[in-house]
Write a structure and sequence with these properties.
It is a single chain. With 422 residues, this protein is of the alpha+beta class. A hairpin with a 4-residue loop joins strand 4 and strand 5. It is 53% helix and 9% strand. It is globular. Helix 1 crosses helix 2 and helix 2 packs across helix 4. It has a five-stranded antiparallel sheet with strand order 1-2-3-4-5. The protein is built from 19 helices and five strands.
């Protein structure tokens, strides 16, 4: 008897809390009624009806499929998206205005989809939306969201016509989240090859994202499939030097569109690939016009600033020497940005004011004379690393991270890799 009374009291308290949450959300919606072009009184009634009838079904579906913790940070945005869909389902109004979420396409849904959507029960509409995108709803344009909610296959929408059948199957049936927020579908494509996101420190993913950019062609992944398969085999090859991946990635990105057959051939032989990547890197550096770049930035080549208390740091490994160099002139920073293919040149003003200092991690192979940059480090005034990037703005792999940490100990510089990568 005591247990029964306790359960009834708990259910009553939970019900009151849920009612308070939904009522507060209806008030929040009402504050922005003007964005929906409805009469205030009518909009207030619709917001309350949504909180009372539609929202509990959504909450139940979310907690059943992805759990409370998975959607905690997205809950407010998610409710806005569902309210807009419910408003279209309830009233048949087509709205262009999007307050909370990003609207890439900006297109209105087709009449057939709207007609089918309004004929379906609300519970069925909630079930139609794939679990994989519940925490990414605010990235979808209205036409895309309605297309999925009406029960259509993702491939039938023009934005995702480049998806293969396997990718569409994964999209509708996989329970993982955040798979197409960049709208290229690279993560789905790599999963169809049996490849997971935590492999090889995202190196292959970063390369595929660089190649699969807008405008997306319908057969884009048919052409990228052999490259992805060769890259997976390359990283499994013990003779491949993973520390040379930065220039290898640059070589593939620059040559894939014009010399794809040669790139695929070189990917079979790690040593031949490394030689081709080094040759391409040296040829690009030789073509850099520093005078023109400095003119674009509006600085003289002899513009310099005082260095901080920086000690020489060198480390010898089996493959060669590493050292950290602090860049003290505008010419050095512009050259670093040109060599590394990133935007470190934008930090020139901060360096002149003494707000930042830029250091370059450099490598010289055994038996070679030339040093080449492999990572660029930005250190803030409070002696903490604010940014660390490789070639093409790539994140540093574990090997380079350990080298930077070894340098930071002697320099008494703090590093939080989680904050830097985020």
């Amino acid at each position: 008897m005591f247990t029964f009374i306790t359960n009834r009291i708990n259910s009553f308290v939970q019900g009151r809390k849920a009612a308070a949450r939904t009522d507060s959300f209806s008030k929040l919606l009402f504050a922005e009624y003007w964005t929906y072009g409805l009469n205030p009184r009518k909009f207030r009634a619709l917001a309350r009806e949504f909180s009372r009838d539609a929202l509990p079904l959504i909450i139940n579906e979310v907690e059943t499929k992805i759990g409370k913790k998975a959607y905690q940070g997205y809950w407010l945005d998610m409710r806005y998206c569902w309210f807009e869909l419910w408003l279209i389902w309830k009233t048949g109004r087509q709205m262009r205005t999007k307050v909370v979420r990003y609207n890439y396409a900006g297109t209105l849904p087709r009449c057939a989809e709207l007609h089918l959507l309004r004929r379906r029960p609300w519970q069925e509409i909630v079930r139609n939306v794939p679990v994989s995108i519940w925490t990414e709803l605010f990235y979808f344009a209205p036409s895309e969201f309605i297309h999925l909610a009406a029960g259509f296959n993702v491939r039938r929408h023009p934005t995702y016509a480049h998806f293969t059948r396997k990718m569409a199957h994964l999209f509708h049936n996989d329970t993982g989240g955040g798979m197409i927020s960049n709208r290229t579908g690279v993560s789905l494509f790599m999963q169809t090859l049996g490849y997971r996101q935590d492999d090889h420190n995202w190196a292959v993913y970063a390369l595929m994202h660089s190649l699969a950019e807008y405008p997306l062609k319908k057969d884009i992944f048919i052409h990228l499939r052999p490259l992805a398969e060769r890259l997976i085999d390359l990283f499994d090859n013990p003779h491949f030097n993973k520390n040379s991946w930065d220039i290898t990635r640059e070589y593939i990105v620059d040559n894939w569109s014009t010399r794809s057959k040669i790139v695929l051939k070189n990917l079979r032989n790690p040593e031949q690939l490394e030689r081709a990547a080094n040759r391409h890197f040296n040829q690009r550096i030789a073509k850099i016009d520093l005078a023109a770049l400095l003119k674009d930035f509006g600085y003289e080549s002899d513009t310099r600033w005082p260095a901080r208390n920086h000690t020489d740091w060198n480390l010898r490994t089996q493959r060669g020497w590493y050292r950290m160099v602090e860049l003290q002139t505008a010419e050095e920073i512009v050259h670093e940005g040109a060599v590394m293919h990133h935007c470190v040149g934008d930090y020139l003003e901060e360096c002149l004011k003494g707000e930042e200092r830029i250091c370059s991690l450099r490598f010289r192979a055994t038996g070679k004379r030339k040093w080449r940059s492999v990572a660029t480090i930005s250190v803030a005034n409070d002696d903490s690393v604010s940014e660390a990037k490789g070639i093409l703005n790539a994140e540093l792999n574990d090997h380079y991270q350990r080298l930077v940490e070894a340098w930071a100990v002697g320099e008494k510089v703090r590093i939080d890799w989680n904050a830097i990568i985020d």
